[in-house]
Amino acid sequence: MSLSIRAPWRPLTAAAVADAPAATGVYELRRDATTVLVGYAGGSSRFGLRGELTGLAGAYPDTEYRAEVTTAYLSRWRELLGVHLARTGLLPAGNTDVRGIGPIGPKGPVGP
Amino acid sequence: MIDFSPTDEQRLLVDNVRRFVRTEILPLEADLDPDAGELDPTDHQRLVAVAERMGLRNWEAPAEVGGPGLDVVTQALLAIEMSQHRAGLYAPCYGVFGSPGLVQLAEGTEQQQQRYLYPTLRGELTAFFGLSEPSGGSDPAGAIRTTATRDGDDWVLTGTKLWISDADRADYGLVLARTGAGRRDITAFLVDTDSPGFTVRRIVHTLRTTHPATELELDGVRVPDRNRVGEVGGGFALAADRLVRGRIPYSAGCLGVAIVAHEMAVEYAKIRETFGKRLSEQQGIQWMLVDNEIDLRTSRLLILAAARRADLGEDIRADAAIAKLVCSEAAGRVVDRAIQIHGGLGVSKDLPLERWYRELRIRRIGEGPSEVQRLIVARHLLGGSGRRDDRRS
């Protein structure tokens, strides 16, 4: 399993996320090639990833997203944040309030 | 017949923890993700203060290091209570009473206690336990490939560890490594996670997301000899002791969630009607509930019997193995029956049953699978392991 989400980046627009899966999973938002938010659609999310991304579409203009369906959304979310931390030394701007994240995977910028 | 009636003090502690779970944990949990393993930090801090006022912070720690010094029976009774909520199996009370610590450090050097144990008990540091490897975890003497080589005042550790809970957020870990060619030439070291050469490769995603497992790489990690815990070659006994002691609270956690699942099944059976009758009036359902009751009572007796023998200072390897084997399997059956009685609702995330079902499946493998527990009991019955080198040692 790749440490990063392997799905292609797509524009974060209402039209583009309309066919996102109504399932639990994780997603990543980026703007100008910089990850700005890593989030998840959990067991209480209405319409899963589709619902979460629809809610974000207006709040994050000029942004792309990629998503991954998984039932292990909490541990996968934590892993994605840890990978980002290892590669950049920081958490994404939208996740700076998250506590207890440690680096995962190779340190420094590697791969997509 | 052994009397397992709780003492007045035990009853008071149990009542306090039960009330705490119902009035503090359950209301907060209702607003969390169904798979959550952590509280909001503000809530966590508030409840840690409550746990301190209750005198039960670090409830498993011995009195010598500032814990309440509870006997094993009392600890088991409290563990049964602390697990009676959605996250209770792997995050009992979300850790506000203190996480299961590295109790072996209570026997560490004064320096190790000052640097690692006391900050951990104060909640300033977190730790992992690094035993299992890709080659296995049930037979540590045979499976450990990670090596520790002496180099001046240091040891140099190289190898891979697997299924290590929470290593990605830990400040340090207790790592078992091979220091000789013999099966039991295993030594324990305290390893700081910011050491050069230490990497958490990935999280291993499983049926549970609370305290997820990780894979670690140790690539020439230098550890000073002062961070060696116990004697060179003493790691096997240390690991075995930790595993044996841990099986009682491990079993108690299984029983705790099974008790709640059973209570839910009983209540639901009384109100749900099918074909003009309540479920509770149907013999097929009644028998399922009776089987639950038998599983719960059996589990409770085995836990308390093992705990009582531990308090008497007796060898509890077989007792703890039997308790772990029976309780983990019985709890799985109880939750499975509770789900069946609830029908579709039982497998939805609206109820905690589906989470317990997933997590209890892990309990039959974690801390030694059922087959290894049987092996331990067989050794107890037959003497020795049957291994040629064990007979020599």
Question: What characteristics describe this protein?
Answer:
heterodimer; A: 112 residues; alpha+beta; GIY-YIG endonuclease; four-stranded antiparallel β-sheet; 3 helices; 21% strand; B: 393 residues; Butyryl-Coa Dehydrogenase, subunit A, domain 1; Butyryl-CoA Dehydrogenase, subunit A, domain 2; Butyryl-CoA Dehydrogenase, subunit A, domain 3; four-stranded mixed β-sheet; 10 strands; 15% strand; globular; disordered C terminus
Explain what this protein looks like in three dimensions.
The complex is a heterodimer of chains A (112) and B (393). Chain A has 112 residues and is of the alpha+beta class. Chain A has one domain: GIY-YIG endonuclease. Helix content of chain A is 27%, strand content 21%. Chain A is built from three helices and four strands; from the N terminus they run βαββαβα. Chain A has helices spanning 14-17, 48-57, 73-88, and strands at 10-11, 25-31, 34-41, 64-69. Chain A has a four-stranded antiparallel β-sheet. The longest helix of chain A is centred in the last third of the chain and has 16 residues, at 73-88. The radius of gyration of chain A is 13 Å and the shape is globular. The relative contact order of chain A is 0.23. With 393 residues, chain B is of the alpha+beta class. Chain B folds into three domains: 8-106, Butyryl-Coa Dehydrogenase, subunit A, domain 1; 127-229, Butyryl-CoA Dehydrogenase, subunit A, domain 2 (Beta Barrel), CATH 2.40.110; 237-392, Up-down Bundle (Butyryl-CoA Dehydrogenase, subunit A, domain 3). Chain B is built from eleven helices and ten strands. Chain B has a four-stranded mixed β-sheet. In chain B, strands 2-3-7-6 form a four-stranded antiparallel β-sheet, with no helix packed on it. Classes of the chains: A alpha+beta (112), B alpha+beta (393). Chain A binds chain B through residues 1, 3, 42-44, 70, 72-76, 78-79, 82, 99-107, and chain B through 33-38, 41, 168-170, 193, 199-203, 205-206, 209-210, 212, 214, 349.
